[in-house]
Design a protein that fits this description.
Distance between the termini of chain A: 48 Å
Shape of chain C: globular
CATH superfamily of chain C: Ferritin, core subunit, four-helix bundle
CATH topology of chain C: Ferritin
Radius of gyration of chain C: 18 Å
Largest interface: A-B, 69 and 81 residues
CATH class of chain A: Alpha Beta
Radius of gyration of chain A: 24 Å
Strand order of the largest sheet of chain A: 2-1-3-8
Chains: A alpha+beta, B mainly alpha, C mainly alpha
Strand content of chain C: under 5%
CATH topology of chain A: Ubiquitin-like (UB roll)
CATH class of chain C: Mainly Alpha
Distance between the termini of chain C: 37 Å
Mean pLDDT of chain C: 96
Number of helices of chain A: 4
CATH architecture of chain A: Roll
CATH superfamily of chain A: Phenylacetic acid degradation B
Order of helices and strands of chain C: HHHHHHHHHH
Structural class of chain A: alpha+beta
Helix content of chain A: 10-25%
Oligomer: heterotrimer
Shape of chain A: extended
Number of strands of chain C: 0
Number of strands of chain A: 8
Chain lengths: 202, 328, 251
């Protein structure tokens, strides 16, 4: 099969395939959630998932999937399976009001990070961390720790399940503001339109 | 880059009448209040199915849409264009990644969607089944096909499904660079040499008819589509989007001294409506059903990409790390 | 200071980055996993960006405009090592090339952070974070694939065996080697190669691949002197196809 794309011609496309190709179940990699700090002084916020083989790969993928544009100063990833979500509430109601299960009372305490989705359709933002005996305990404690807030959904995630960038690696994002070619304001079609108009009028 | 069209045909799912009326009312009330639906909420089966289908088609359109522009990725003229085109095609892949993830929250894994794509069971925007003969074709796609997609995406970004809205929010921000880049490319050719102008005009002549089909045929008002509008799955009619596109971009094309290959094209000021030659909907159907100039190539490229990547995915997949449906 | 030495260094670096960035951009849209497609494309863009930055420094030293230099020279005027001009092959070939090249690139720019050529030193400091990502990416993939299935390990080993002698060509010495060192512009290819070898050995030790690299391998050299494989000229013809229709036009 001949293509207009020289890259495609180098792939040697067959003129037809003998049989159908089926993606197998093993193709589906594990799921991780990516979080970014968009600016100094802003909280960590969720941006979306990536599929990866393990958490370091998820970090590598997450960085370009979610922080290749705009600004970013730090990033974290965790397995989706580490996220313990609360129920989702209606407007004007706090998700914390919907907790029915009893908090864990046994076991060792560990640190959890707490994220609030303040409104349906928005992203989860980090509000703080706390010590708890389990995810339900963390949710119940969150209710006490953030009495002023009425999130519509809460995520609690064990701190140790995150993979963060180290402080000295914050230069990973240092040149983002300089990548002007990816920036809409870099393109000034107006000059060319004027040049065309001038050429017609002259 | 996705324009809608041919998405909302009825499908066999549980009849709405069989859904729990109380849950259905709560669901509708939430949408009417302007609140988003999140993945763990109860939702009618029809809503889930239609959304999976729509978001999946949108995702496929991004990954396949990377190919016609990709045709010029190794030949883009000069550093500025070379880097921008690479970034733009990359963004289309990135948008596919975001959209597949949003569709996954409804319960269909990404690999199942890609399986449906490469085996011809899913649709994607028809326009990507047309070839990009010259650099100017890639400029047309970057500017005007993207512009059309933005009309559609901005409308859908006000829809009711949380994960889709979040993905579109990000996508629309990224698209602003695409649009400006595309306009800049076309304006450069407009202000350039006679040959450059000629190439651009030829590209417009080639792409105009597919562009008019991009938004799909006039929507038939059916009970079905009324429900999708009520649920904020469908946010604007195909005709409304086409009209909006014409309103915004015909003057900009004319401003650059190019002609549009449609003798009937004119603005009916009284009705505030653009009149156009009716697109060839038979061609549209033929192409969408697989018989366009590049359908075979597009799917073959995608399939070969999957086949060549198989050993990589197989190697890094660890059975200990389980796939999980994304939460948001 | 005689600029000739610096110019020679800048050209080979710029040409390396341009050609490998161009090659790697061929994967955009057809990569093995969506997320990897995006990551690999970003790095290709970075490489092209680095070459652009280097050609700009050359322009300040009196050479032609970056677009002219990059898009209108012929193969024999390019000073890239031959490794970067080979077709992308299968993903194992592209990954191993990325691994071998980017560790050298990382250490080269690291050595240039305090170069007496201030423009180059500034650029090296500025893009440090970008190249740090490139080696993080390479290392993560090597660790993942290098401990995985037999097929993956065989593929990596084969590509490593093929590419190692090619990679040694990165360090082909220039006639100005001593001058670059004594002028404090650059610490020299030999020092670079030592750092590079330490790094790639460290990564290889994290894998099941054969760590004993062939010390007797004869480096694929010539690229720095303008001698190239048959792959380069067609690559350049393709890259400049549009530009050459009218090199003076604005695009």
């Amino acid at each position: 099969m001949e293509s207009l794309d020289p890259r495609v011609n180098r792939m040697n496309l067959p003129s037809s395939f003998d049989e159908a190709m089926h993606k197998e179940e093993m193709d589906q990699l594990a799921t991780y959630e990516v979080f970014l700090v968009p600016k100094e002084g802003k909280p960590l916020e969720s941006v979306g998932p990536v599929h990866a083989s393990e958490i370091e790969m998820a970090f590598v993928f997450g960085k370009e999937a979610y922080s290749r544009r705009f600004t970013c100063v730090a990033m974290a990833v965790c397995p989706t399976s580490s996220i313990f979500p609360s129920p989702v509430s209606e407007a004007g109601q706090s998700a914390y009001e919907l907790l029915t299960d009893q908090a864990e009372t046994e076991g060792d305490e560990q640190q959890y990070e707490v994220f609030h989705m303040n409104k349906r359709g928005k992203f989860h933002k980090h509000v703080g961390s706390l010590m708890a005996k389990g995810p339900l305990d963390a949710l119940h404690q969150g209710k006490e720790a953030f009495p002023e807030e009425t999130p519509q959904n809460v995520w609690v995630i064990p701190t140790s399940d995150f993979h963060f960038n180290s402080e000295e690696d914050s230069d990973l994002w240092a040149t983002l503001p300089e990548k002007k070619y990816r920036d809409a304001i870099f393109y000034k079609a107006g000059d060319k339109i004027q040049k065309y108009k001038d050429s017609v009028n002259s | 880059m996705y324009g809608g069209g041919n998405v909302f045909e009825p499908m066999k799912v549980k009849e709405l009448a069989d859904e729990d009326p109380i849950l259905l009312k709560e669901f509708q009330d939430r949408i009417d209040r302007g609140e988003k639906i999140e993945p763990t909420d109860w939702m009618p089966e029809l809503y889930r199915k239609q959304l999976i289908r729509m978001i999946e088609q949108h995702a496929h359109s991004e990954i396949i849409g990377a190919l016609p522009e990709g045709t010029w990725i190794t030949r883009a003229p000069g550093f500025k264009r070379k880097m921008a085109l690479m970034a733009k095609v990359q963004d289309e892949v990135g948008h596919a990644q975001l959209l597949y993830s949003a569709a996954e929250t409804l319960g269909k894994p990404r690999e199942a969607m890609i399986d449906d794509l490469i085996n011809g069971r899913s649709k994607y925007s028809n326009i990507f089944n047309y070839p990009a003969f010259t650099w100017a074709d890639s400029c047309f796609i970057s500017w005007l096909v993207d512009a059309g997609a933005i009309v559609n995406q901005l409308a859908n970004a006000k829809g009711s499904y949380g994960p889709y809205v979040r993905a579109l929010d990000r996508i629309c921000k990224e698209e602003s660079f695409h649009l400006k880049y595309g306009h800049d490319c076309v304006a450069s050719l407009a202000a350039g040499t006679p040959s450059q102008r000629k190439w651009m005009q030829e590209a417009i002549d080639r792409w105009w008819a597919p562009m008019m089909m991009f938004f799909g045929p006039s929507d038939k008002i059916s009970v079905h589509s009324e429900i999708l509008i009520k649920w904020k799955v469908k946010m604007a009619s195909n005709d409304a989007m086409r009209q909006q596109f014409l309103d915004m971009y015909v003057p900009k094309i004319w401003e650059l001294g190019f002609t549009i290959p449609d003798p009937l094209l004119r603005k009916n000021e009284e009705e505030d409506k653009w009149e156009i030659t009716e697109p060839d909907w038979d061609e549209f159907k033929r192409v969408i059903n697989g018989d366009g100039p590049c359908n075979k190539e597009r799917l073959a490229v995608r399939r070969i990409a999957e086949e060549r990547g198989k050993w990589v995915r197989e190697a890094i997949n660890r059975k200990s790390e389980k796939y999980m449906v994304p939460l948001a | 200071m005689d600029n000739q030495a610096a110019i020679e260094l800048l050209y080979k670096m710029a040409d390396d980055d341009l050609i490998i960035g161009h090659r790697n951009s061929e994967w955009t849209g057809v990569g093995p996993i969506l997320e990897e497609d995006i990551s690999f494309s970003s790095m290709a863009q970075d490489k092209i960006g680095h070459s652009w930055g280097l050609y700009k420094i050359l322009h300040q030293l009196g050479e032609s405009e970056p677009d002219l230099v990059a898009f209108t020279r012929n193969a024999e005027q390019f000073h890239n090592c031959q490794m970067v001009e080979f077709p992308i092959g299968e993903y194992d070939f592209s990954l191993i090339r990325h691994f071998l090249f980017d560790y050298a690139d990382y250490h080269r720019f690291e050595m240039l952070e305090n170069s007496s050529l201030t423009g180059l030193a500034q650029l090296a400091r500025k893009i440090k974070g970008e190249i740090k990502y490139h080696i993080l990416h390479a290392r993560t993939w090597m660790k993942n694939l290098g401990n995985s299935t037999d097929e993956a390990k065989e593929r990596l080993q084969r590509s490593l065996d093929t590419l190692y002698p090619m990679a040694l060509g990165i360090f082909e010495k220039s006639p100005y080697e001593d001058q670059l060192i004594s002028d404090g512009v650059f610490g020299g290819e030999e020092a670079l190669q030592t750092r590079w070898l330490d790094s790639i050995m460290e990564v290889l030790r994290l894998t099941d691949l054969n760590h004993t690299l062939d010390s007797a391998a004869s480096p694929l050299i010539g690229g720095r002197m303008g001698k190239h494989t048959d792959h380069l000229q067609p690559l350049l013809d393709e890259m400049s196809e549009v530009v050459r229709t009218d090199p003076t036009a604005e695009w």
